[in-house]
Amino acid sequence: MNLSLMILWCAAGLLIGQADPAPPPTKTAEAEKTAKIAKTAKTSEADAATPASMSLDDLRTQLDALLAPTGVPIEQFEESPNRQLVDLAAKSGVLSRNAADPQTKLEANQLEMRAYNALAQSAQQADRPGEASLRVTQLRSAAQQTRQLQFDDAEAAGAFWLLQADLIDLNRNTPDLAQRQAGAIERLEAFLDSPEAPPAMKTDVKLALLRLYEQAGRSEDAAALLLDLRRTLSSQDPRREQLHDARRVLDMLGEPIAVDVNTTRQQDWSLADQRGRPVLIHVYADAAPTSVALFEPIGQLQQTLGEEGVSVLSLAVNSSTADRDDNAWPIAEVNDEDAVLRTLGVRSLPWLVVVDADGKVAAVGQTGAVLDRVPRPATDTAEPAEPAEPAPTEPTQEGP
């Protein structure tokens, strides 16, 4: 039985990838498109009930061919990968419901959930919220069906994919992202601690947790988990590729970096000039709404700590800054090939780097949780010590 359940961390980041730069569709257009997608899914399921399309091995082979190593659809097919994924999901679902063998049911369910997972993430990345919601609902439905199967590991497999649906849903709901991210971390940690979670499944959960630790700037936890995964995964395991980015980020910690830019106010800004106070560097783009949303909490942080408590720099990637002339801290415009982005290790947006007062990288991450990693000034709140009383002396005994 194949229990290798892929965590679909896309190159742009599962939780906070860049949105499609095209303007989002209107609610009416989105609703019409979602209804059309749902109708197509029902048609695909009806068409899937043909004997020639029911081979489990054929379905697995086709699905593996459609998904890149990270699990997201690849664009090298004449027919739209999404349409093929819808068809494979429907056929796998029909096979699971019609199969008499519990193992065939479970494996077909696994294929169905992988397909819906990829479809949900594809819709999320392309800023199609209606379709993403539909695919997440389909993924949850398939996961609930998996949990009801009378077969070893079915409960754990279903629970795992419900967690995956939660993570995709987390990505689509950005206002309380850091809080929901913390909840997702807790659920994955609890899953790993569960004695019912199969060992074969735990590695993929750890890879998901590693990504979340990275995005939250929890460098110590990420380093410990990375070490564990490097010991666990063999050199031939393709999942080791997912460790490279984490290793590069962790290698930045404690190292000095140099950042020199010219701001939109035509002033030179150098990281070297900020020594003596922590620095927060915020990389954003108009095409990534979550990265823009960080302006508000960053502003609150600067108000709390004061300009002497933290220096802030925002880097606008291929974005206009005309509407931010009155921003409280400097902004510099850069393009996506600028060397400063490589210096900061930017992989996706938003991207946050905390540099300590000595000019060394203290934290790297992608959500508001990283703001908590900015060093706070030491406060002396201890009450003045009272004069120590003289130690009591032992009474002397009189001689006889």
Number of strands: 7
Overall average pLDDT: 77
Question: Helix/strand-derived class?
Answer: alpha/beta
Largest sheet: 5 strands, mixed
Tell me the fraction of residues in β-strands, as a range: 5-15%
CATH architectural category of the largest domain = Up-down Bundle
What is the CA–CA distance across the termini?
92 Å
SSE topology string: HHHHHHHHHHEEEHHEEHEE
Low-confidence stretches: 1-27, 40-53, 387-400
Q: Name the shape in a single word.
A: elongated
Please work out how many helical segments DSSP would assign. Answer: 13
CATH class of the largest domain: Mainly Alpha
Oligomer: single chain
Task: Tell me the helix content.
Answer: 40-55%
Strand order of the largest sheet: 5-4-3-6-7
In the residues, how many domains can be counted? 2
Give the CATH topology of the largest domain.
Answer: Delta-Endotoxin, domain 1
Rg over CA atoms, rounded to whole Å, is 26 Å
